[in-house]
Amino acid sequence: MTKKNYHSVPWGDNWAVKKEGVAKPVSIHHKQANAEDKTHSLAKKAEVEAVYHRGDGTIKDKDSFGNDPASIIDRVH
User: Fold this and answer.
1) What single-letter DSSP state applies at residue 34?
2) How far is CA 66 from CA 8, 20, 24, in A?
3) Which of 29, 35, 40, 30 minimizes the C-alpha distance to 62?
4) Is the dihedral of CA 23, 29, 56, 72 positive or negative?
């Protein structure tokens, strides 16, 4: 069974944390930073990837908490 990544995405005037393949958000936040914090913590706990989106829906950044090769180094977080 493949683990599903978590995304912070625009949701109307708010921000939502969504799990891949699930229509209903895990949580909804008024601020982007709060949604990103929740996305980060859920992805870290599940050992999957956290994907952060911009207001237009494009991907802004990613953090991986899974089984990545040691040669991959995240320079942002």
Assistant:
1) H
2) 18, 15, 24
3) 40
4) negative
Q: In whole angstroms, give the CA distance from residue 26 to residue 16.
A: 7
- Answer for the pair 31, 51: CB distance below 8 angstroms, yes or no: no
Cα–chain center distance at 12:
17
| Token pair of 32 as six digits | 């982007």
Span 39-76, pLDDT tens digits: 999 999 999 999 999 999 999 999 998 776 655 556 66
Q: What does the block give as tokens for 48?
A: 């999957």
- The ranges assigned to domains in the chain are 6-59
Residue (of 1, 68, 29, 33) closest to 20 by Cα position? 1
Q: Per residue in 47-65, is it b (16+ CB within 10 Å) or e — as a string?
A: ebbbbbbeeeeeeeeebbb
| Mean per-residue pLDDT, 13-23 | 96
